[in-house]
Specification:
This protein is mostly beta strands and 175 residues long. 8% of the residues lie in helices and 37% in strands. The chain contains two helices and eleven strands. The longest helix is centred in the N-terminal third of the chain and has 7 residues, at 32-38. The N and C termini lie far apart (38 Å).
Length: 175
């Protein structure tokens, strides 16, 4: 059964009264038992039992319109797992393989990170693609937002592990 403690909020819902969640939708409260038990599952197994799915409320959108989507990260095992990532990024999303569509933060450095999911637990994260790709000029200061072409585009989400990288995607059509 789903655990509501992992229900994520959009950035507009963040408030001081809900400080138990971080900006990426992960619960900041630590369950030491889950973390401890999750360490017994080898990483190669943990990475294979985590699934990622992406869903949208509709399959067609106008070019330039915002596209809301939902990412679900799930532990298929009945026991806790801890997933390690080689950098601070725990997960991310992209459109047509381009992180320039995402407004997620850029991570500097290579400090490893990790997160734990209880057995059968899942994390639901709501996001919205602006409908544009972010392009930064060569000077590093000038930023443009360009419209994608009409047609089929893929919104994908991933857990930021080394290969195999759990990921899921959905196709939308821009008209």
């Amino acid at each position: 059964m789903a655990n509501d403690r992992h229900m994520a909020r959009s950035p507009s819902d963040w408030s001081d009264r809900n400080e138990d969640r971080d900006r990426f939708g992960f619960d900041k409260t630590e369950n030491e038992l889950t973390d401890l038990l999750g360490r017994f599952v080898p990483q190669f197994v943990a990475q294979r039992v985590i699934t990622v799915s992406v869903s949208v409320p509709d399959r067609e959108f106008a070019v330039g319109d915002p596209v809301p989507f939902t990412v679900e990260i799930k532990n298929r095992l009945p026991v806790p797992v801890t997933v390690r990532t080689p950098t601070r990024r725990l997960w991310g999303w992209e459109v047509d393989g381009d992180l320039g569509a995402s407004d997620e933060p850029t991570y500097a450095g290579d400090t490893p990170s990790q997160f734990a999911l209880e057995g059968g637990d899942h994390l639901v994260i709501e996001r919205e693609w602006s409908g544009r790709f972010k392009r930064t000029g060569r000077d590093g200061e000038r930023t443009e937002y360009v419209l994608p072409e009409r047609g089929v585009h893929e919104i994908a989400a991933f857990v930021a592990t080394k290969d195999p990288q759990p990921r899921g995607s959905v196709e939308i059509e821009l008209r």
